[in-house]
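hey so u asked for the seq, here:
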Amino acid sequence: MRTKEETGLKVAEFLLQIKAIELSPESPYTWASGWKSPIYCDNRKTLSYPKIRTYIRQQFVTAINESFGKPDVIIGVATGGVAIGALVAEELGLPFAYIRAEAKGHGLGNRIEGVVEKGQTAVVVEDLISTGKSSLSAVDALKAANVNVKGMVAIFTYGFEQSRKAFADYGVPLQTLTDYETLLKQALQAGYINEHQSSLLRAWRENPSVWGQ
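ran it, structure tokens below
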């Protein structure tokens, strides 16, 4: 059985291989927030690779069983957590539902899509944790529906202090398959970046809102 560190390095390598995560410290990307970022992440690409999505599904199932026990329902967060969340629910033989970013502006005005009952326990599935704002907004929607959130799983987290504090304040345990530190370790070992680029990437994570200005 792989250790958590070995799993983290393997997932990081997968994400780098398929360019689900791209590192570009010398030519940074611009996020919607306006932040300059040396990293771009789109974990939805993992769905296009059967071997990788299967591995991620299996590791999510292991993480859920070990950290939270079997819940009543699996909840995906739109859009990145919907497909992989459904695969996890299928593996566990559990019902699945998902949370919209905001309530529909027509019809029933649902934010939760699917059948979720009051008093049920849920584990939430995400593809990426950045500030944690959108992920914890999904938790708010579930709490408003009187659903007990046992925890959340995600493929990758940047590990911002802001998100760590937010999850702690909410009392929501978070398990991720890999993280920023593990990604940089794997990227350096595998030759995706050099030592200088690694230093730039570490500096960004310490103060991302002003990095590159």
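The beta strands are 21-23, 29-30, 36-37, 39-41, 73-77, 96-99, 112-113, 121-129, 148-157, 174-179. The two ends are 44 Å apart (CA to CA).
lmk if thats what u needed
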